[in-house]
């Protein structure tokens, strides 16, 4: 799966009861998981043994887990909660009918767009699994660190830019609807100030 070597492939079920017990989920949280996910499978294990790449200081191995969804509009909190289950790093393949999207957690949930199942392919690049993991996070999250920024810094900057962009779009809609010239001018000034901050 995901274009990883055949030696990494495993097919081992991950029962929801294990998640409930390990995370000590209350009844409402269990119902939330049940509402979104029908079943989970370990599908790949990326380790020094399976890919011949040295373990990193932080990443000794990581897993690819496939989650069969009951609905396309799942609760993101449920998916973020799954990342707390396994102490190792993991990539989630979220599948619904004939489509999938890939999710990874790095300070926040990073997801790809929906695409036909089986169309994702990633490369394992790096001298050790720390570097491989960072490269996969960049590929999945479509993150391009700017010179002088770490991956985590770039994720934070990108998130801040997205929030500012959303606020600009909200204000632009408000400005179009505003009939009083003075108020409209104030909104446009606010938009221009926000646009200046987008160049972080």
Walk me through this protein's architecture.
With 200 residues, the protein is of the alpha+beta class. The chain has seven helices and seven strands; from the N terminus they run E-H-H-E-H-E-H-E-E-E-E-H-H-H. Strands 1, 2, 3, 4, 5, 6 and 7 form a seven-stranded mixed sheet that branches. Helix 6 runs antiparallel to helix 7 (181-198). The longest helix is centred in the last third of the chain and has 27 residues, at 151-177.
The biggest sheet amounts to: 7 strands, mixed
**Strands, total number:** 7
Order of helices and strands: EHHEHEHEEEEHHH
Q: Report the mean per-residue pLDDT as an integer.
A: 89
Number of helices: 7
Residue ranges: pLDDT <50 for 5 or more in a row?
Answer: none
Radius of gyration: 21 Å
Distance between the termini: 37 Å
Quaternary structure type? single chain
| Class derived from helix and strand content | alpha+beta
Layout of strands and helices, then pairs:
Layout: E1 9-14, H1 16-23, H2 27-36, E2 37-46, H3 48-51, E3 62-69, H4 76-82, E4 89-96, E5 99-105, E6 109-111, E7 115-116, H5 129-141, H6 151-177, H7 181-198
Parallel strand pairs: 3-4
Antiparallel strand pairs: 1-2, 2-3, 4-5, 5-6, 5-7
Helix pairs in contact: 6-7
Summarize the structure.
The longest helix is centred in the last third of the chain and has 27 residues. It is built from 7 helices and 7 strands; from the N terminus they run βααβαβαββββααα.
């Amino acid at each position: 799966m995901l274009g990883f070597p055949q030696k990494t492939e495993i097919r081992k079920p991950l029962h929801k009861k294990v998640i409930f017990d390990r995370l000590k989920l209350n009844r409402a949280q269990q119902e939330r998981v049940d509402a979104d996910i029908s079943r989970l499978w370990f599908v790949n294990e990326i380790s020094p043994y399976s890919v011949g790449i040295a373990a990193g200081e932080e990443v000794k191995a990581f897993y690819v887990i496939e989650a069969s969804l009951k609905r396309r509009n799942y609760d993101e909190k449920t998916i973020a909660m799954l990342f707390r289950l396994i102490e190792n790093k993991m990539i989630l393949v979220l599948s619904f009918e004939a489509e999938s999207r890939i999710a990874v957690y790095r300070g926040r949930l990073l997801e790809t767009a929906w695409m036909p199942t089986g169309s994702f392919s990633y490369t394992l690049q790096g001298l050790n699994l720390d570097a491989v993991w960072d490269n996969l996070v960049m590929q999945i999250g479509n993150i391009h660190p700017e010179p002088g920024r770490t991956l985590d810094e770039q994720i934070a900057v990108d998130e801040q830019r997205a929030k500012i962009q959303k606020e600009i779009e909200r204000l632009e809609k408000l400005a179009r609807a505003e009939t009083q010239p003075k108020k409209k001018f104030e909104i446009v000034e606010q938009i221009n100030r926000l646009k200046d901050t987008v160049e972080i």
